[in-house]
Amino acid sequence: MVQNHVPKITNSQLRLTLVAMQQVIGEKSSQEIISGLDIGIDLANLPPEDLDLTFPARDYAKLSAAVEKTYGSRSAQILSRIGRSTFHQVLREQPSWMSSARRTMGMWNPSRRAALILEAIIDAQQTAYPQSESWIEKKNGQISYIEQNCVVCYRRVASSPVCFLKTGFLSEAVRWATDKEFNFQETACIAAGDPYCRYVLDTTRPNQ
């Protein structure tokens, strides 16, 4: 499926990813990967924390693909860790809202908490990208997060799902909301020819 609705990402999303990337693989390795792409990123001059759409989504996807190529069999784990770290950058940017949300969610069961944080992510996504289409589905104890305009795999072609960054981000968001480890599995990916990216969470089987 060719994606046409989100040709650029926000400055804030790029900044958060670059900060998380440096935390996970280090500044030197991050710079080596970026330098090999020639996509106009300077770690010494990070983008501002705003929602201006300035960075091409195709280059953002190239960044993820370059990490994947660099780390080979370890790439899924590395990218997932970068995604998880990115969520913590969001927490640091919005401490008051997150603190309030955490208190509210304390009254609900893990499944409801997971759904709430995913709904909050969708709201934030639609604020940043008004033309984006994301939603959740609930069935038989599973929650699916579905995204029809994915910037992680924008214009990529692969034989299997490649949105490890988003998988890590969603997994950490749910872990934070529920105090339990629920790993998402990407079961459909636009890069693999599917009409959307789907991430499935089984709330009946926490890892701990």
Written account of the structure:
By secondary structure, the chain is α+β, with helices and mostly antiparallel strands. The protein has seven helices and six strands. Strands 3-4-6-5 form a four-stranded antiparallel beta sheet, with helices on one face. Strand 5 and strand 6 form a beta hairpin. Helix 6 crosses helix 7. The radius of gyration is 16 Å and the shape is globular. The termini are far apart. The mean pLDDT is 89.
Short description:
With 208 residues, this protein is an alpha+beta fold. It has helices at 11-25, 27-35, 57-71, 75-93, 95-105, 110-128, 164-178; strands at 8-10, 53-56, 134-139, 142-147, 185-188, 197-202. The relative contact order is 0.16.
Sheet-strand content, in percent, reads 5-15%
Rounded to the nearest angstrom, the distance between the terminal CA atoms is: 37 Å
Order of helices and strands: EHHEHHHHEEHEE
SS-derived structural category = alpha+beta
Average pLDDT value? 89
Helical residues, percent: 40-55%
| Largest sheet composition | 4 strands, antiparallel
Inertia-based shape: globular
Going across the major beta sheet, what is the strand order? 3-4-6-5
pLDDT < 50 stretches: none
Alpha plus pi helix count: 7
- The whole-angstrom Rg is 16 Å
Please give the number of β-strands. Answer: 6
